[in-house]
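Write out this protein's structure.
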Amino acid sequence: MLFKAQMSKKSHKLQNHNYWQFLFSLSLHYLRSTQVIKSKGSESVSFSEYREMGSKALNLFLFAIIAFSTLSLKPAFAENEEDTGLVMNFYKDTCPQAEDIIREQVKLLYKRHKNTAFSWLRNIFHDCAVQSCDASLLLDSTRRTLSEKETDRSFGLRNFRYLDTIKEAVERECPGTVSCADILVLSARDGIVSLGGPYIPLKTGRRDGRKSRADVVEQYLPDHNESISVVLDRFGEMGIDTPGVVALLGAHSVGRTHCVKLVHRLYPEVDPELNPDHVEHMLHKCPDPIPDPKAVQYVRNDRGTPMKLDNNYYRNILENKGLLIVDHQLATDKKTKPYVKKMAKNQDYFFKHFARAITTLSENNPLTGTKGEIRMQCSVANKHH
């Protein structure tokens, strides 16, 4: 600042010849160091030479300032450009067809395999609820690490090969651009629509994690036998409020529950809280107190509309037809029962809170910017691929 002030003050006093001589004297050392001037003394330099060399000095001086400023500011700007966080339509420039491709693949797969939509809905819960929405769920086991897919909490998850189908379709159009984490989230969004649920605008820009989180799954995913207070606390840590939790559990409106997860309510004695009319059906579907793990024995979560995401689930649990302990507690606990009643009466109310909860879940601690990676194959981290 002092140099600038002195230069400005002297510049006002200098006229034509003196101005360039002054600039030359300031820049003489710099010019000599760059061999612009080698051995000439200042006494033998003419006015035209002062002006020419002074002009060169000024240009070099300004160039140096600009270059230095650019280098100094570049990291800050680069960092901002690299990490925009989650935004709507993140791939609009890099892969504008991405969301359309995913949507079409989800529709095609649903026509061939109806249960894929249930899988997409479960995936977003099982992945995003465990520390980060980073597609760690999709990683296969390695010699050193267990896959989240193989933990007890993930029992019954399937159709991962069809998620690979979606990834392959996206890769053909935009190689190495769209993350598996975003494909997981968007397939859930479009799967919800396939099941008759609301369309939920979701942000994108996630990147993929490089490691399984199997060792912490049970710390984050509540078990179906845990108290409703524990369930509320676990979701509350992600920013999902009580009506949001009640709405999320409305996903039990579709899909099925494996007998191994509910026989404790049937054997050795039937849980007296269960609706007697529903018990007969459950016993028919789960005839063995110790189900054969190789046999696919299950009960549909909602006998009335098993393929439709709707508020029939809430009417069922108010009639004690919930299959899991958590379903029963949801309908009887004083913290959640008022919302169950509202959702049983009003599907729009259910959809509103369901959409909010899914949005919050999908934005749970994502990897963005330069964190993580864009996997080439969803089941394998790039370093192992």
